[in-house]
Amino acid sequence: MSVTEYIRKSQLWRSVFRHPAPYDRRNRAVVVLTNFFLHLHPVSAKKGGIALSYTWCMGGVTFFLFLVEALTGVLLMFYYRPTLEWAFTDIRALRDVNTLGIMREIHRWGAHAMVITVWLHMYRVFLTGSYKPPREFNWVIGVLLLVLTLLLSFTGYLLPWDQLAIWAITVGSNMARATPFLGHEGPGFQLLNVGGFDLITNASDARFLLLGARTVGEETLNRFYIMHCVAIPVVVSLLIAVHFWRVRKDGGISQPL
Amino acid sequence: MNPHPDLTVGVIHGLGWLYLLMFFLNVGWTVRSFRRDGHYHSLFGVEHIPKAVVWAAFSALLLLVALSHLAVNSDPESFLLRLPLWFKGSVDAIIANPISYFALSMVVFLAVVCLKDWWVQPTVAWTLFNASTIFLALSMTDYDFRQIVGKPDNVPIVGMLYLVGFFTWLYFYKANDNDRRVAEGRPLHEKELSDQVLVWPDLVYTEMVCMLLVTALLIVWGVALPAPLEEPASAVKTPNPSKAPWYFLGLQEMLVYFDPWMAGVVLPTIILVGLMAIPYIDFNKAGNGYYTFEHRKFAVTTFLFGFLPLWIGMIVLGTFIRGPNWNMFGLYEYWDVHKLEVLNNVNLSEMFWLDVMKQPLPRPGADDDILVQVGVILKREWLGILVTLAYLFVIPPLMAVTVFKKFFVRMGFIRYMVLATLVLFMASLPLKMALRWAMNMKYIVAIPEWFFNI
């Protein structure tokens, strides 16, 4: 009995992997059914539906990048404090933290890449008509995931607290003060007025809600940090689960049932 | 020494490696061409020469160019391979002008759709790839071009352009193939591959290879290009230009033509609602789960119009071409803060009252009753309000009985109205651009009193 065979037959091994190695047809099916990580997939699929030139693999790459961002993001959180005093210096000091290496680079380039791969995934899904019945609602969830990906990237853009960061966020969030009815420079805000008293001012409008202050400041940094590290990722994870589940329930990747 | 050198030894060596990469890619292409492209009947009097000889010669040229770059060790200013000034000048003249920039992007878009049978041929597409890469490489010999394109956060955009180009090509290549199959009565490519295969190994391995490639790419990218970190944030030092993150630059570009409440709130909302509405307004049952153009011309063309010239094109414009004071600059032009552009935009109401009626603009008095003020404002802006209402409420029924007649009959009232409204909102951007350039039109309805300008 060889060593590998001995290990494979041990109680320990068989408690983790409940079937022989996936060398034959039966065990290749069983591995997908019994493995938690593989059970996202069906056991079998149409050859044309999983061909790389058909799927472009952009949805898969997006998901993988999301995992990369989560991993590198947690590592960065060990070294980063979201306060005016420390945010910038912490990021600058990261360059000297050898154990972290290029984690910040991977996090930033991965974020840009994720925005691009989301668009390309959407491009492919449109071009193969894969939003057509019965997958209409999954396309809607996909659009929500697109918005959340952009918001993740946008909130993360502020955290280094350099010139690039605050002015990009200032320009991006200035739009909110022109929100109809809810922005203090938007059309119709004068109508929300009780007894000559404006309800919508620069300290109570949509932009204030976004920033937590009248300008991009410490409250904004804190707000964006929580959105970036906790709130949006939780919602995204939930929607990804629904997205994948519905792909399976609607008959696999993007071809009619 | 010139503080802004067009060429340095580092740049020349970098380009040398790029040309070397191009050489290897083209050697691969030569092999492919030798196997598939056949022979010239007669070339310069010699018979039966493989067509691959052209690619072999091109590859050899690339190798020579690469070596001549890599051999440079001193005096980069005297290196000869660089963009000629007349070329930079003429490119800048086209790019820095909004009319010719958008005309060019429309021409490219129309060419992508109308000439799809021609440009998706592998040899043509490969030639286009070579041409665009050589254009990029030669452009890198310009200092100002490098300043913009080499900015760390702009590098992904260049990658994105190649990816979008490649996948657009792939789409049309596969769609053309399927459309030909349908015309000849053969089964679709996807239908021919309808055997069931096991996900392990066929899909799981593809996924693993993709993961490894992406990991490798991120590591190489992270080592080669440090993440940007500028000066510490300062609320008093406003950079000029101030730009949103690159993926929002299409929206920031709309600010040139619309007020923030439209460009920053209403139009983005409509883009998202419109995207979500696509599956519910596209009643066409064909084209589900396979690549095709002929079966869904309207849907694909509309989507490509929104994605390529309007979204990607405006990101390119906002990133590479908009400079200080949001003026347009050529690719090889220095971003001069003092560049002046004449802006004398006028509102539709001013055109009507001042030019046509030869009267002063009606102005509400500050002490007037609120209803009187409303009346004066409506009187001042009646033409613009009428035009806007007509655009949104008269054109849809007109289209329903003319160009969109078939759609209206098949879609029903609600679906059709959603479609028509979305198309009109999408068209409002190019229309507003055209009005700006043709007549310096600022706002169609201008009611600054209520922050309501369209």
Brief digest:
The complex is a heterodimer of chains A (257) and B (454). Chain A has 257 residues and is an all-alpha fold.
Topology overview:
The complex is a heterodimer of chains A (257) and B (454).
Chain A: H1 3-9, H2 11-16, H3 25-34, E1 44-46, H4 47-50, H5 52-55, H6 58-77, H7 87-94, H8 103-127, H9 136-158, H10 163-174, E2 193-194, E3 197-198, H11 206-211, H12 218-249
Antiparallel strand pairs in A: 2-3
Chain B: H1 9-36, E1 39-43, E2 46-50, H2 52-70, H3 85-95, H4 98-114, H5 116-119, H6 122-139, H7 143-149, H8 155-183, H9 189-192, E3 196-198, H10 199-224, H11 249-254, H12 260-281, H13 297-321, H14 348-356, H15 370-393, H16 395-401, H17 405-411, H18 413-439, E4 446-447, E5 452-453
Antiparallel strand pairs in B: 1-2, 4-5
Provide structural commentary.
- The complex is a heterodimer of chains A (257) and B (454).
- With 257 residues, chain A is mainly alpha-helical.
- Chain A has two domains: 1-44, no CATH class; 47-249, Cytochrome Bc1 Complex, Chain C (Up-down Bundle).
- Chain A is built from twelve helices and three strands.
- A two-stranded antiparallel sheet of chain A has the order 2-3.
- In chain A, strand 2 and strand 3 form a beta hairpin.
- In chain A, helix 6 runs antiparallel to helix 8, helix 8 (103-127) packs antiparallel against helix 9 (136-158) and helix 9 runs antiparallel to helix 12 (218-249).
- Chain A is globular.
- The relative contact order of chain A is 0.10.
- With 454 residues, chain B is mainly alpha-helical.
- Among the domains of chain B are: 1-82; 348-453, no CATH class.
- Chain B has a two-stranded antiparallel ribbon. Chain B has a two-stranded antiparallel ribbon with strand order 4-5.
- In chain B, a hairpin with a 4-residue loop joins strand 4 (446-447) and strand 5 (452-453).
- In chain B, helix 4 (98-114) runs antiparallel to helix 13 (297-321), helix 14 (348-356) crosses helix 15 (370-393) and helix 17 packs antiparallel against helix 18.
- The longest helix of chain B is centred in the middle third of the chain and has 29 residues, at 155-183.
- Chain B is globular and about 85 Å long.
- The two termini of chain B are 52 Å apart.
- Chains A and B meet through helix 3, strand 1, helix 4, helix 5 and helix 6 of A and helix 8, helix 9, strand 3, helix 10 and helix 12 of B.
